[in-house]
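Metalloprotease PmbA
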Amino acid sequence: MTQAFDAAAQQSLLETRAEAALALARRLGADACEVGASVDQGVGVNVREGEVETVELSRDQGIAVTVYVGSRKGSASSTDAAEASIKDVVEKALAIARHTGEDPAAGLAPAELMARELPDLDVHHPWALSTEEAIDIALACEAAGRGMAGIKSSDGAGLSSGEGVRVYANSHGFLGSQRGSRHSLSCLLIAEDEHGMQRDYDYTSARDPRDLLAPEVVGESAARRTLRRLGATRPATGRMPVLFDPSLAAGLVGHLLGAIAGGALYRQSSFLCDRLGETLFPEWFSLQEKPQLRGGMASSPFDNDGVATRDNVFIDQGRLASYLLSAYSARRLGMETTGNAGGARNLRLDAPLERQEALLSRMDRGVLVTELMGQGVNGVTGDYSRGAAGFWVEDGRIQHPVEEFTIAGNLEAMFKGLAGVGDDTDTRGSIHTGSWLIDEMTVAGG
């Protein structure tokens, strides 16, 4: 699969097509133009109960053109980047622009903010993996999990491996491109006892396939996670501390980012509107992004506007120090872009870390949440209510699994009530964090 993907040739081709689209837009009367183009190729296999279920070889490509005629904007895209299609996309974008209303905030990011240096951030690690090898890895992962005593069956193991190229160019003369790769392996298992069936999973993900956990490690971990859920009951109802597993704590960071994103702010649809400079977290907590971190899962030298990315501090010793802004949202708010068109990249906490055992001891009686269900988060008010599963904690120790309960609170109160962060940092995604101990939430069980 990967041998057939010539990343250098694809990068050169996309750059040529982007420049052709810019030139055509100028000739047809656009005052400004920006072009995004990408191509991705990958293999994905899924196995179940020792048999191959699916094998997918994918190749996706596309080009998107945005033109500006004065303060009018038009956008069009196509999955076909051939010369004739580029002409059609540019013409459609211009036709749309001439019929849209004027928007004073529309336009390219300032030319002086374009990225000038485009370093290699070590995010492209192709995997010369045949389909047969991918199947063998997935089968080995599932077999390791199914081989654990108490596992009844499997809901499958899957491996995906892909690489791609993305290009962004605009009429300031900026042209940036980046190659990247992403690989992952997962396993989902089922266990059963006299109380019923339970399922859980585990996975590993990395830019470089050499950084993936061994398939046997993933399968056995998925089995242990599944087996520990057997015998689950409903917890007591009341106000109590809640400890969020690292993967779920990353979701809380995601809710914060959504609330400080420019789009939510200028639409007045965030509970953190006009809160810049206010204290949201304990003073020992800071949150920053490292967008040019070598090998990072979201690293890039430029954002989706072509603006040079930079280290940003969003929470500084508990205080909201910065919003998350693109060029457009910044203009709508009368501010300057933070280089975050396309989102935040490589979030890292600066906080004292504790072992999970210490956090459990401090919470004394409450719940450790390892799974959340539903979408009960209101970005306007910050109200938070989700279905959950996890473990009951009594006398500072995990006692037994619990399920079919809800946890509820308000994000602002939860942030202020952050009592501790664990050292069990999950590094598989763009947000690196350990467990979060929230001092008090409403738990509704049986």
